[in-house]
Structure formats: C-alpha cells, structure tokens
Specification:
6-stranded mixed beta sheet, about 30% helix
C-alpha cells in the first residue's frame, strides 16, 4: 500500500492506494515536488506530516482510508506490518505514525 498526494488540483488530494498490500509502504507525490503543498495536504487530511526527507503517516489515517476497502484479515496483516516497521525504527516516538520514503512522480 502507499499514500498518494496529488498536488495538481487546486486543493491537493490524499488517497490510500492498494490498501490490501501490507508488504510495502511509501508516499507517492503526483504533480511535482512541491513539498509545501504536500505538507499542507497531509495536515489538512489529518494524514500526517513531512519530517526531513520522509513522511510520517498516522496509523489512524491509514486505518480510516482503508476502511471498507480491504479483506477481513487486513487488521492482522496491517498490525504485522506495523510490528515489522517498529523493528526497523520506522514508527515515530509516539507510536502513532509510520515513516514513509517519498517518491515523486
């Protein structure tokens, strides 16, 4: 799964793509590397923030955006993804956000 921020519309759009895939996670920016607009879009969508060269996407936002779009076993698989991310240091100090590398399309 990955979070997509499309900065081409006047009001950028934040979506969760391929939510059933709990084997990868990143932030994809569509429309250019306007990180001010990306940051604003993440905050406006209550989805996370940018920090350094990475995004921190809230666990609650991922769950919210995945709701109704994933299989019954998704919660267990997502929890497994979070546990793995924790072993790699990819969960923030509060335990509420997942670090994601940024890819610009």
């Amino acid at each position: 799964m990955f979070v997509r921020v499309d900065v081409t519309p006047q009001r950028p759009v934040v979506t969760l793509e391929e939510p059933d895939d709990c084997t990868r996670f990143h932030l994809e920016v569509v429309g250019g590397a306007d990180f001010g607009r990306v940051f604003g879009a993440l905050v406006d969508a209550a989805a996370g923030r940018l920090e350094g060269d990475h995004a921190l996407i809230t666990v609650d936002a991922v769950r919210r955006m995945a709701a109704g779009r994933v299989g019954d076993d998704w919660d267990a698989r997502f929890d497994g993804m979070l546990a793995y991310a924790r072993t790699k240091g990819w969960i923030d100090d509060t335990g509420h956000a997942i670090q994601a590398h940024i890819e610009v399309d």
